[in-house]
Amino acid sequence: MKQLSIDDIPEKKRPRPVTAHEVARFAGVSQSAVSRVFTPGASVSDRTRAKVVAAATALGYRPNLIASSLITGKSRIVGVVVPGLNNPFYAALVDALSAALSLRDYRVMLFTARHGTSADPILEEILRYRLDALVLVSAQLSSRLADECAEVGLPVVMVNRKTDSESVSSVTGDNRAGAACIGAFLLAGSHHSFAFMAGLDSSSTSRDREAGFCERLYQAGVAPPLKVHGSYTVEAAARATRALLKADTRPDAIFCANDQMAMAAIDVARSEFGVDVGRALSIVGFDDTQLAASPAYRLTTFSQPLDEMVDSALAILIDARSGRDSSAGPRIVSGHLVVRDSARLPPNGLKQVGGRTVWMPPAKQSIN
Fold first, then answer.
1. How far apart are CA 30 and CA 38, in angstroms?
2. What is the mean pLDDT of the chain?
3. Mean pLDDT value of segment 106-119
4. Neighbours of 19 (CB within 10 A)
5. Is the model more confident about 71 or about 100?
6. Which range of residues forms the domain containing residue 41?
7. Domain assignment of residue 1, yes or no
């Protein structure tokens, strides 16, 4: 039997939504009073609020956010662009953003950009919606689209990615310093042959992590690391790991530009090559996703504090929506190198911070 849809119900028999006018008449107040009750921050007396809420409950009224946005000019909807949710870090970041925005009575409209491509086509679609702000999570933004967003008054902040434009705000982890810290950590662990597994060359995040890592090795007089591309995917990271471990001279340390690639590298090294990860081969990631701490991986990785990144991004957007001046440009949130079992331990520098073991280089090994 065919399942009925709303289109199969005759128009006269369809349930009609209760209007704000009917709630106002039932409560004995003006329609504008109803609107104020359901507008966050609007001024309304406790007595009027109680009457309207009671009437709305009795009638089954649900505020029409679209209609409200036409009146106030604010939809209380924030667009979030993410290149898919296969990467656990992206999923965790979107979840943290959604929770923080919900506490401020905003809702999220999610857009997914195709992995490894320019975000321009999807942003063209986004600009057709009535959004209060736009957050780009590890998504690219061309200067042309940045200018278009500015022209229509749409505040934009990039999270975990940055652009060369000085007019666009961004919030990132300390990619360069974090990668330099990883380089210092591996050097302190008496490693001699290094490899770097890149994400996408178009990604500022991957480029900054590569630069910080290479700079630290260069300062130590060590040959540049072998470079392979994991492209931020499990499949490409697995292929890259096989290429490294089949080489005549294997590296004894691999720094992967994110945790997802590092965990793929651990799986291949253990299951296909029988390598003792953490002893014969050190593998280090970046992000400190939830799965990194699992017994299956115990991954050493540089943390990105999600809550601080989200708070910084929302502070930028709230300032922009309130008309307050907020200097554009990058904001960098510091993290720690969290030490687990996937890499050899150096003789010193290990500390306990917030219940985790972290590594901090001694003063004489400054990474700046």
1. 13
2. 85
3. 72
4. 15
5. 100
6. 6-72
7. no
